Amino acid sequence: MLHMRIIVPPDRTARLAQILADSDAVTNVAVVPGAAREPDGDLVFCDVVREGASGVIDRLGDLDIQRDGAIMLEHVDIALSASVDRAERLVPGLGVDAVVWQEIEHNTGEESTLSGAFLTFMIVATVVAAIGVLRDLPILIVGAMAAGPDYGPLAGLCVGLVRRRPRLARRALVALVAGFSAAAAVTVLATWLLDAIGVVDRSMLLAPRPLTSFIWQPDALSWVVGVLAGIAGMLSLTSAKSTTLVGVLISVTTIPAAGNAAVALAYGVPDEAAGSALQLVINLAAIVLAGVATLLVQRLVWRRGHRGADEH
Predict the structure, then answer these.
(1) Contact status, residue 78 vs residue 47, Cβ threshold 8 Å
(2) By percentage, how much of the chain surpasses pLDDT 70?
(3) What is the spatial distance between Cα 191 and Cα 60, in angstroms, rounded to a whole number?
(4) Cα(210)–Cα(136) distance, integer angstroms
(5) How far apart are CA 242 and CA 245, in angstroms?
(6) CB-based contact 111:38 (threshold 8 Å)
(7) Domain spans, the chain
(8) Rounded to an integer, what distance in angstroms lies between the CA atom of residue 185 and that of residue 163?
(9) How far apart are CA 237 and CA 107, in angstroms?
(10) Distance between CA atoms of 259 and 88, rounded to whole angstroms?
(11) pLDDT of 116-168, one tens digit each?
């Protein structure tokens, strides 16, 4: 369930109220004339079931409220109301599976921004992964996977491609390229520094590392894991199961592969650097392809359900 707060110019309030009244997905509508001051207008409150939220927002777009008003959405954890129960019965589908397209565009847009915090997390995660590689410690690899923020831009790229938002796709691609480049460069420098003070050395990279060697030795299963992670990750973002995202991040080796490649470059081990780079490319490509495919299937299912609801 979503709570919607709308500021609408008075000359469009009647049309807005009619749109809300005509939708089975909307309930608990309240109109407060002249309550808004910045921007000026009427204040409208309503509750919308997730299954029908995207359709309602699309219809509100015809009123051009975003230009001189506002539409705000908030998640409602508990709604005790017979009218809410009735709306959930009337709208096809389940709220947990519903995709609110405007919501995921907004969320992935924020996560795809090349910011100082994003770069810092990328660098820290990659350096931690590099130490985990040299020490052959899976716990550090897992920690680096969980700390890495790279899935945000990957999801933004998928959404930008499917929703035909070139600005979002470009922003996400820039964040990915800049993030991995900066993280790899700093990790190379960090490796040289740690080597200079005697904390690590080249022999640690060349020694047998049975617990982390998979990072630079990709195989067919690398594609399988990447595809499955891409599907699960996108579902966790588009549905109400966002708590599963951390588990998805721990299943892919993008950050560890970048860390391993940087260490191998720092110590001049080209074969291992190339293997790590290939692992990174495989995981990134698999996640994007699976994410795009997942969104396309969800959009097809949503359109069919939306069309059936309109016909009903």
Answers:
(1) no
(2) 91
(3) 54
(4) 8
(5) 6
(6) no
(7) 2-97, 104-302
(8) 33
(9) 9
(10) 47
(11) 999 999 999 999 999 999 999 999 998 898 888 888 899 899 999 998 899 99
Residue 151 CA to residue 179 CA, distance in Å, equals 12
Helices 270-311 and 151-162 meet at what angle, rounded to 10? 50
Of 133, 132, 117, 255, nearest to 183 (Cα)? 255
Dist CA 275 CA 183 (whole Å): 18
Tell me if residue 263 falls in helix, strand or coil. helix
Q: How does 214-241 read in b/e, with b if 16+ C-beta sit within 10 Å? A: bbbebeeebbebbbbbbbbbbbbbbbee
Token pair in block for residue 56: 């309602």
Class of domain 2-97: alpha beta
Residue type, 80: L
CA atoms within 13 A on the CB side of 225: 19
Assess contact for 117 and 82: CB atoms under 8 A: no
Is the Cβ–Cβ distance between 156 and 170 less than 8 Å? Answer: no
Which of 254, 258, 256, 257 lies closest to 230, judged by CA? 254
| Helix and strand element counts for the chain (H, E) | 14, 4
pLDDT of residue 245: 58
User: 249 and 146 in contact (C-beta within 8 Å)?
Assistant: yes
Q: What is the CA radius of gyration of the chain?
A: 24
Sign of the CA dihedral with 113 first, then 231, 223, and 243 last: positive
Report the distance separating Cα 272 and Cα 279, nearest Å: 10
104-126 burial, b for 16+ CB within 10 Å, e for fewer? bbebbbebbebeeebbebbbbbb
